[in-house]
Amino acid sequence: MKPHQISALKFLLENEDAQNNKPESLWYHHDNAWLRSYFEEDSNSSAEERNDNRSQGSILADDMGLGKTLTTLAFILATSNNGRTTLVICPLATLSNWKNEIDLHFRDHAIPYKVFHGDDWKSLSREDLQSTMLILTTYEMIGTSGNKKHPSRHNIGALDLFWFRIVFDEADLIRNAATNRTQSIQNLQCQFVLCLTGTPVQNQLTDLQSLITLLKIHPWDQEWIWRSCLVPRMK
């Protein structure tokens, strides 16, 4: 691995470290005193229970071509002793790249994985999905097929599983919070989230909102914070 990938790996490990109790510096920055005051006085927030100020994961925003996939795989391997499963959701176009990177850089099945896409999903049981170190799937498998009464087995969200970590490759694809896909993704259950994107902001700063919501970065994951405080100041 290259130096920037090793630095990124350390960053990812630190963000999931239970002993890392450092407060989010952005929230306590002096420029945001106005927002803290607004938040504390708002009647809607008074009933909210403050969390421990730790985000539930990371955004890895290295430029394209700098090896985010390899860094992520090294991260998954480094935390494999927890015995829990990481779900990687990627565009169909990059699915083969994930498989190739595993086969190229990790020998002797160091990262056992299964693919939940196409015909491959039919051979997978719930036990397979929860006992394998890495599950690869695509955004096409996180749709809204079926319904609550008769969920589609093609939809991995309908399986109602709890994942240790979910990795979103090309996470900028879920920047629009109003789409069915983004809403389905936000219903997935996990302990940690890792967003991979070379373009976390494409058109406007609000592109970050969906990613921050997934990461549960308090209080920035609150819709009213964006609507009432942040968006007006962007105009």
From TrEMBL:
GO BP: any one term: DNA repair
Pfam families the UniProt entry points to: SNF2-rel_dom
GO molecular function ontology, one term from the record: hydrolase activity
Name the UniProt record assigns to this protein: Helicase ATP-binding domain-containing protein
InterPro entries, A to Z: Helicase_ATP-bd (IPR014001), P-loop_NTPase (IPR027417), SNF2-like_sf (IPR038718), SNF2_N (IPR000330), SNF2_RAD54_helicase_TF (IPR050628)
GO cellular component: nucleus
Organism: Puccinia triticina (isolate 1-1 / race 1 (BBBD))
Helicase ATP-binding domain span: 49-218
Superkingdom of the source species: Eukaryota
UniProtKB keywords: ATP-binding, Hydrolase, Nucleotide-binding
